[in-house]
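Q: Could you fold this chain for me?
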Amino acid sequence: MMELDPRTTAVIAVHMVRDIVARDGAFGAIFGDGVERHQIVDRVGQLLSTARGAGSTAIYLRVVFRPGYPDLLVNGPLFGMIAQTGAVEEGKPGAEIIPELAPEAGDLVIDHQRLTGFFGTGLDVLLRGRGITTVIFCGVATNVSVEGTAREAVNLGYRTVIASDGCSAASDQAHDATLETFGLLGEVVTVDEIAAAMEHAVVPH
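A: Sure. Below is the predicted structure, expressed as structure tokens.
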């Protein structure tokens, strides 16, 4: 059975914003189907709720750009699509975390402008300041920002976990291939297995 110390664990929900996960969002045609079929919103909500209840840190990664996109560097197709669709622009509804997963008191929100949550942000400093040694990732998309940020976490020395049924991609094939590869770098477990580990954790007094 998986073992976790909730006090040194953070659950990181990646890109649960309207433009990315909702059917009517700018990227809804790409990611919306997988999010709905795999019930990702419910799974992420379950994981965040369990984390809060166990005393773990809940963190949201939000990709967002200033109005007019002065901080958007278009050096690849994905970033080009952001500018073309008017996606994840600060101040617009599409850039906000969906209401079903609205952050609660004590949760942290990290904004970033590149593919991953550590690059150009204070995420690493924040985690180390809280004594976090284990990071658990969920969200969208498995093969882009979830995997990318998880790989960075491995390089930075964290015990790194991806919730296999707590994330999705544009295709199930891309999702499965990512998890198969990441199994060589970190841990791939289900939301229920993570919840069981947190609920049964023995925390020394």
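A (continued): The domain at 6-199 is CATH 3.40.50.850 (Rossmann fold).
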